[in-house]
Amino acid sequence: MNIQLIGSLISQTLVYAAPLILTALGGVFSERSGIVNVGLEGIMVVGAFSSVIFNLSFADQFGMMTPWLGVLVGGIAGLVFSLIHAAATINFRADHVISGTVMNLLAPPLTIFLIKVMYGKGQTDTIQQQFGYYDFPGLSKLPILGDLLFKRTSLPAFFAIAVAVAAWFVIYKTKFGLRLRSVGENPQAADTLGINVYAMRYAGVLISGFLGGMGGAVFAQSIAGRFAITTIAGQGFISLAAMIFGKWNPLGAMGAAVFFGFAQNLSIAGSNLPVISQIPDVYLQSAPYVLTILVLVVFLGKATGPKAGGVNYIKSK
Predict the structure, then answer these.
(1) Separation CA 54–CA 47 (nearest Å)
(2) Domains of the chain
(3) What angle (nearest 5°) sits at the alpha carbon of residue 121, between those of residues 38 and 68?
(4) What is the structure's pLDDT at 302?
(5) Which residue ranges traverse the bilayer (predicted)?
(6) Quick one: CA dihedral 43, 45, 47, 53, positive or negative?
(7) Which of 183, 197, 219, 260 is the most exposed place for a label (fewest CB within 10 A)?
(8) Which parts of the chain have pLDDT scores under 50?
(9) Residue ranges of the alpha helices (H) in the chain?
(10) Is 126 helix (H, G, I), strand (E, B) or coil?
(11) What DSSP character marks residue 189?
């Protein structure tokens, strides 16, 4: 393989990994607070829908900044949508898995209904302002490394990596992160130390919604290019698997998301690669989902998440 082909493979892997990284990080924040969030798929759907609507409506006004503003809009929409999960699990003490499943079932028909009301059809038009490829000034001129990492690459992916590093710092090096982890491990002990367990859990779920909505927005504006009921198509569940594979650690989740991004990219770039090009397309296209199931089966029982994860907390009187 020549260096251009390897560079293209890395670039496309980063494109697919970016939304998974952001959404998996959202899952880390929620589950570190003790709230299991299987509703990442629904949150991504809402984020993708909101970003595409914003993009179609304001592309003429904001130009090249539209996709980035769309990511912010998608994050806010995901945050608002995650309030359902937060209220259900924290205030009404609903089962976390059932609440997340309801979110996954609610988001697609709700957004498609709104699309039909707004556009009179089951999907939006293709957006004009999308995340394209980006050349880092100076760095793209570096020999070998520039061609591999910094030329015609995905800027949202580097943004997601920066968010992952920041998330690791917040969770492990700040007072907020210590309190967040404490309510996910032993909320009773945290409560006796004066930590507001409900507030911290709300914070974890809302951050999860914001990051998951951003992930959906990045996917819609860099890969799908429009919104339909099949736009997200399991990306939230892959992100959930990346979070578990990464052992609820932001950097581990990021690495797992890159791995799943590579698996998704194989269905496109596999025809240009030795040996892999001999594998039928149907197997390459199903590879990310098969890997997701395998990761959940193999690692779910062995990986140990927060001890109070999925356990509703009732403040003692």
Answers:
(1) 11
(2) 3-130+143-299 (1.10.3470)
(3) 55
(4) 63
(5) 33-56, 68-90, 96-115, 155-172, 202-220, 227-245, 251-270, 282-301
(6) negative
(7) 197
(8) 317
(9) 3-32, 40-62, 66-86, 96-119, 145, 155-173, 175-185, 187-192, 197-219, 235-245, 250-269, 281-299
(10) coil
(11) H
- List the structure tokens of 5: 């082909």
Residue 19 tokens read as 């939304």
Rounded (10°) CA dihedral 242, 245, 248, 250:
-60
Q: Running DSSP on this structure, what letter comes out for residue 220?
A: I
What is the token pair recorded at 310? 């999925």
- Kindly report the backbone phi and psi dihedral angles of residue 26, in degrees, each rounded to the nearest multiple of 5, phi listed first: -60, -40
pLDDT in tens, 230-288: 999 899 999 999 999 899 999 999 999 999 998 888 877 766 666 676 777 777 778 77
**The tokens of 196 are what?**
């507001």
The number of beta carbons lying within 10 Å of the beta carbon of residue 103 is 25
Burial zone of 274 (CB within 10 Å; 0-12 exposed, 13-18 middle, 19+ buried): exposed
Angle between helices 3-32 and 155-173 (to 10 degrees): 40
In whole angstroms, what separates CA 150 from the centre of its chain?
A: 23
Residue 42 tokens read as 């629904």
Q: How far apart are CA 157 and CA 222, in angstroms?
A: 10
Q: Rounded distance, CA 44 to CA 65, Å?
A: 21
Q: How far apart are CA 182 and CA 176, in angstroms?
A: 10
Tokens of 124: 């939006």
Half-sphere exposure (Cβ direction) of 269: Cα atoms closer than 13 Å:
20
Residues 130 and 166: their CA atoms lie apart, in Å, by 26
